[in-house]
Specification:
This protein is an alpha/beta fold and about 400 residues long. It has 15 helices and eight strands. Strands 1-8-5-4-2-3 form a six-stranded parallel β-sheet, with helices on both faces. Strands 6-7 form a two-stranded antiparallel ribbon. Strand 6 and strand 7 form a beta hairpin. Helix 4 packs across helix 5 and helix 10 crosses helix 14. The relative contact order is 0.11.
């Protein structure tokens, strides 16, 4: 149970006034830099100009890959990989949220593959190498700035697939809470739901965990519950933004998952939602998570849910396990749908059950099996039932 390897080689510059280190860090990997970003918000907040200034100051050559989508497409990955090949890029600089960073990771791997990068995402071809990646984070959510995975969408096949390789983990990440001040209340709420979900997916592990790791996860979940509403209401609250940003990184950088022995459940289910309907990832997780909790709650799981409820939401510890567990799930719903004001149902998003059977089947086959082997194993019929609970 307590056997694992821990290695997080990402160097982090946290806080303001750190971009003066950007040029020297990039220069360690070469002279030709590909700047990857999304729809241009980094220009509106003047971050783009600051970054270009630092790159030029270091005497580096700059190339650009712009227009990376919120659910990054494999077409953007292929476009970036081709730029890397044509321009002999030395290092990648991802500036944005998790979608930009995820795309950049596969751009780096695609640089060393001659075919369609979708082959790498679907594991038809191995990831053998990756260009070094440096990130400047602008949204606390996915934790991609400090992990080795990414999620890519293929609209032609209605697939959204996550996978990772250790060589795709960023070498250096710049985390300045001030860069998240202009993030909308909606995206802040969705990002916070994503962070919370990462912790929930790891916390509910059928073989248990270390007490130390449990308390660490409980503390981070409490941090999200405390500071997400503050950041939504007061976007420039540095304390709230800093706590969310650092929690985002540590929720999924392999530290708390040291004892993890099962696959995640809500994420594979949500990937199908955003693959078919292109919804915001964090919103899909918010809608799914409490329904998944209710579905897997039974006498065998009640004690774990009770511990979660008591430690994270302060539910009365003298309550019977099942009663405390249900109170904890109600607290999760209040946090997501009342405090963060996120949409509560798929129906409100215009989503019906048309594709549920197909989506459920894909979710269960995501890891090559016939069931989703999570905290409680789920068959396609189980997943379909959870989708229907979300209507």
């Amino acid at each position: 149970m307590f056997k694992f390897t821990y290695n997080i080689p990402t160097k982090v510059y946290f806080g303001g006034d750190q971009l003066s280190n950007l040029g020297p860090e990039l220069k360690k990997f070469g002279k030709r830099v590909l700047l990857c970003y999304g729809g241009g918000s980094i220009k509106k907040i003047e971050l783009y100009d600051k970054i270009v200034t630092e790159i030029k100051k270091a005497g580096l050559e700059l190339f650009e890959l712009s227009g990376i989508e919120p659910n990054p497409r494999v077409t953007s990955v292929n476009r970036g990989a081709q730029i890397c090949k044509d321009e002999n890029i030395d290092v990648l600089l991802a500036v944005g949220g998790g979608s930009v960073i995820d795309c950049t990771k596969f751009v780096g791997a695609g640089r060393y593959y001659d075919g369609d990068a979708w082959d790498l995402v679907t594991r038809k071809a191995p990831i053998t190498n990756c260009l070094p990646i440096v990130t400047v984070l602008t949204l606390a959510a996915t934790g991609s700035e400090m992990d080795c995975g990414g999620v890519i969408t293929n609209l032609k096949t209605n697939d959204k697939i996550g996978m990772g390789a250790s060589i795709m983990r960023p070498r250096v990440s710049f985390l300045d809470p001030a860069n998240t001040y202009t993030v909308s209340s909606y995206q802040t709420a969705c990002g916070s739901a994503d962070i919370f979900s990462h912790l929930v997916e790891t916390y509910f592990n059928p073989i248990g965990s270390m007490f130390m790791l449990d308390t660490f996860m409980e503390g981070m979940m409490k941090t999200v519950v405390k500071y997400a509403p503050v950041a939504v209401a007061h976007p420039k609250n540095e304390e709230a933004r800093a706590n969310l940003m650092w929690t985002s990184s540590w929720a999924i950088n392999d530290f708390v998952s040291a004892c993890q022995r099962c696959t995640w459940s809500c994420h594979p289910m949500e990937h199908q939602l955003s693959a078919y309907y292109d919804i915001t990832h964090g919103l899909g997780l918010a809608i799914l998570t409490p329904r998944w909790m209710r579905y897997v709650l039974d006498e065998t799981t009640a004690e774990r849910f009770r511990n979660f409820a008591v430690s994270v939401f302060g539910v009365d510890p003298t309550l019977p396990n099942m009663e405390a567990a249900k109170a904890g799930i109600e607290a999760v719903e209040k946090f997501l749908f009342e405090d963060l004001k996120l949409t509560k149902t798929l129906t409100e998003l215009g989503i019906d059950k048309t594709h549920f059977a197909e989506m459920a089947d894909k979710a269960c086959h995501a890891k090559g099996g016939r069931v989703l082997k999570g905290y409680k194993h789920l068959t396609p019929k189980d997943v379909e039932a959870i989708y229907e609970m979300c209507l």
